[in-house]
Amino acid sequence: MPAKVLVVDDEPAIRRLLRNTLVRAGYTVVEAEDGRQALHQAAVEHPSAVLLDLGLPDRDGLTLIPLLRVHGDAVILVVSARDAVDEKVTALDLGADDFVSKPF
């Protein structure tokens, strides 16, 4: 059974790009466009990894990191246009496993 990845981003084009790339690589992809959907999908789908944007319409993605940790031990990779060092450090301190800056 392929590993499942939750892609959390409010931009449909980014979700589509990540979904297509991950599916071609053999992953199963679940999507969310906001924090509420992300928490629901994490609880229901139990992904192996989460690709998390920080700029979501209903909340700051940083607040989701510890909440996602409650739903399991998925690898959390922050994928964000924010590139300030303090935000990267905060994301990692909150439990993210790594940080990739957009554009990528």
Q: Helical stretch count?
A: 4
Instruction: Give the N-to-C terminal Cα separation.
Output: 28 Å
The portion of residues assigned to helices is 25-40%
By DSSP, the count of extended strands is 5
Q: Which runs of at least 5 residues are low in confidence (pLDDT < 50)?
A: none
User: Structural class of the secondary elements?
Assistant: alpha/beta
Order of SSEs: EHEHEHEHE
Task: State mean pLDDT (0 to 100 scale).
Answer: 94
The largest sheet, given as strand count, sense and whether it forms a barrel, is:
5 strands, parallel
As an assembly, this protein is: single chain
Approximate strand percentage:
15-25%
User: Outline, from the CA principal axes?
Assistant: globular
Radius of gyration from CA coordinates: 12 Å
Question: Please, could you describe this protein's structure?
Answer:
With about 100 residues, this protein is α/β, with parallel strands linked by helices. It has helices at about 10-25, 35-45, 65-70, 85-95; strands spanning about 5-10, 30, 50, 75-80, 100. Strands 2-1-3-4-5 form a five-stranded parallel beta sheet, sandwiched between helices. Helix 4 (about 85-95) links the parallel strand 4 (about 75-80) and strand 5. It is globular and about 35 Å long. It starts with a strand and ends with a strand. The mean pLDDT is about 95.
Secondary structure elements and their pairing?
Layout: E1 4-8, H1 12-24, E2 28-32, H2 35-45, E3 49-52, H3 64-70, E4 75-80, H4 85-94, E5 98-101
Parallel strand pairs: 1-2, 1-3, 3-4, 4-5
